TrEMBL record:
TM segment ranges: 90-109, 116-133, 193-213, 225-246, 301-320, 327-350, 370-390
UniProt-recorded name of the protein: 4-amino-4-deoxy-L-arabinose transferase
Regions annotated as coiled coil: none
Superkingdom of origin: Bacteria
Native source organism of the sequence: Asanoa ishikariensis
Keywords (A to Z) from UniProt: Membrane, Transmembrane, Transmembrane helix
Keyword Ligase part of the UniProt annotation: no
């Protein structure tokens, strides 16, 4: 665990250099996710029943369910308040997500029967895979450690390993409960990753039941009780998370992804061999390949060439049986083909299309994120090869060379991810009357004003999510001409009481002219400050 923390600090550096002022990748999604953790902690501390009624996207209901919530990180949100605390919290969790990915993969392959060096390799490959660099702004995608850790706990609880099979004397019911709880926690981080994980758990359960029916090994009542309790926790967590999302889907039918919507984010096969631009080792070498892919981060999905090579070796030399190797290889191929989405064979209709019809998959916009499973399966294959090599080597220099293999996987994860400074909130925002609208506004920039509101969480029209509600779109369009009679009428009808125009931020945007607006003949008052202009709108008399 200490090694995982040190490794995570290294590969995410300089995240922890200025955690109060900078944020990894960009100031778009990360600032929004920093707000998410702050909001969930605030709601749990003040009014848990209003958890899903966030202060953003006013006046919409269930606005916290407009995108993946990272709800599992809510305990961290209980610590501190305000934008600085939100930034520090986000940066720490960003590092811990990498550490947990290492720990989870290490624990899984060790439980399956691999050695320590193989465990370190699997952990490093899973935590430092190059494709993760293209997702540096998506914490919900980086938070995959719970997947591997839950599978490790469940396998341990059931006394099962890939190498030795089911051993009743190794059954640990407490670990089984812990595994189901870890799975429920992972699901609470977001359905984009959680839905495929849930179906994968279901497939594991089906395989386990079929295997038990064939051989009828002894099962203790304690284990069955543990599974019953754990499964209840998992299903209850899933139901709790699903309810507001189903309500949102009913209210906004266009949140469901059509088959055509998947075209942009579906990677071709070469995407699984293409590195993101921020990789120190591979970034420049794949510039032309990324250009052919359209420079889309969602389709640069290299799991790592070290991992590919060792997994290929694992097909011919491994501690796993030949049958297990073939099944793992088939699963790797299947994960890639499914991950290709609409770029799969035959337009993907008979591959990812089979998943698309399952409940929940029509809300996922990025089939390529199934590369998580590609990486984990490759890591298991590679761990079998490394363990086999370690058992055969008796000459110390070669043994030391094997111990360096995890460093090759780490090297592929070294990066030049930018860490831009986050703009400070204009002081007047702390007292502006809510509901408010901060300009400029937009789907890619509203994370900043969302972060700014984490001191008192005033209701605001601003909000960034997986889709744009119609009333928010109308307010943004109207604000392009603010302040004039029509825009003021739209915003007053929406319920807006304050429009805060951030002087520096609107420069060069379509909202730049709002700085110079006049209030003559309009039901509003203008207040000038050095950092912002505040327009106070008279409420509509009802």
């Amino acid at each position: 665990m200490l090694g995982a923390l040190a490794l995570a600090s290294l590969v995410t550096w300089p995240t922890l250099r200025h955690p109060t002022r900078t944020i990894p990748s960009d100031v778009g999604d990360p600032t929004m996710q920093a707000w998410q953790m702050a909001w969930s902690g605030h709601a749990l501390r003040t009014d848990p029943m209003s958890l899903w009624q966030a202060n953003a996207f006013y006046p919409e209901a269930n606005s916290f369910a407009f995108t993946d919530t990272l709800l599992g990180y809510a305990p961290a949100g209980l610590i501190g308040s305000g934008p600085v605390a939100a930034l520090v919290r986000y940066n720490i969790i960003f590092v811990l997500a990498v550490a947990l990915a290492f720990i989870g993969a290490y624990a899984l392959v060790r439980q399956l029967g691999a050695g320590r060096v193989a465990g370190a390799l699997a952990g490093a490959a899973f935590a430092c895979a190059p494709w993760r660099l293209a997702q540096a702004g998506h914490l919900q995608v980086l938070s995959t450690g719970g997947i591997a850790l839950a599978l490790a706990m469940l396998a341990r609880g059931h006394g099962w390993s890939l190498r030795h099979g089911y051993r009743p004397d190794r059954v640990r019911p407490g670990w089984a409960v812990a595994g189901w709880c870890a799975a429920a926690w992972q699901l609470s981080l977001g359905f984009g990753i959680g839905v495929p994980f849930g179906y994968a758990l279901g497939l594991v359960c089906v395989v386990a039941i079929v295997a038990w029916l064939r051989h009828r090994p002894p099962l203790t009542r304690r284990l069955l009780l543990a599974d019953g309790i754990g499964l209840t926790v998992f299903l209850a967590g899933a139901a709790f998370m699903a309810r507001p999302y189903l309500q949102v889907a009913e209210q906004f039918p266009y949140v469901r992804r059509s088959w055509q919507d998947l075209t942009w984010t579906s990677p071709p096969l070469r995407g699984f061999f293409t590195s993101p631009s921020t990789s120190i080792v591979w970034g420049d070498l794949f510039a032309d390949a990324r250009a052919d892919l359209g420079h889309r981060g969602e389709v640069s999905l290299l799991p790592g060439f070290t991992l590919y090579a060792l997994a290929a070796l694992g097909l011919v030399l491994s501690i796993w049986s030949v049958r297990q190797r073939l099944l793992l290889a088939a699963a790797v191929i299947a994960s890639i083909v499914f991950g290709m989405g609409t770029q799969g064979p035959g337009g993907g209709r008979l591959t990812y299309g089979l998943l698309y019809v399952l409940p929940g998959f029509d809300g996922i916009r990025t089939p390529g994120r199934l590369v998580i499973w590609t990486t984990l399966l490759l890591a298991v294959l590679a761990a079998g090869a490394v363990t086999a090599l370690a058992q055969r080597v008796r000459w110390r220099p070669i043994g030391l060379a094997l111990a360096l293999l995890p460093l090759l996987a780490v090297a592929e994860g070294l990066n030049t991810t930018p860490h831009p400074p986050v703009p400070a909130a204009p002081p007047v925002l702390a007292t502006a009357q809510a509901p408010l609208l901060v300009l400029p506004t937009g789907a890619t920039i509203d994370g900043i004003p969302m972060l700014w509101t984490t001191d008192r969480f005033p209701t605001m029209v601003n909000g960034a999510a997986a889709f744009t509600p119609q009333r928010q779109a109308a307010a943004r369009t109207a604000a392009l001409h603010f302040p004039d009679a029509s825009s003021v009428a739209v915003l007053r009808a929406t319920g807006v009481r304050s429009v805060v125009v951030v002087r520096d931020a609107v420069v060069g945007t379509p909202y730049e002219t709002t700085v110079w607006g006049t209030t003559s003949g309009l039901p509003l008052t203008r207040v000038d400050t050095p950092e912002a202009v505040v327009y106070l709108l008279d409420p509509i008399e009802r």
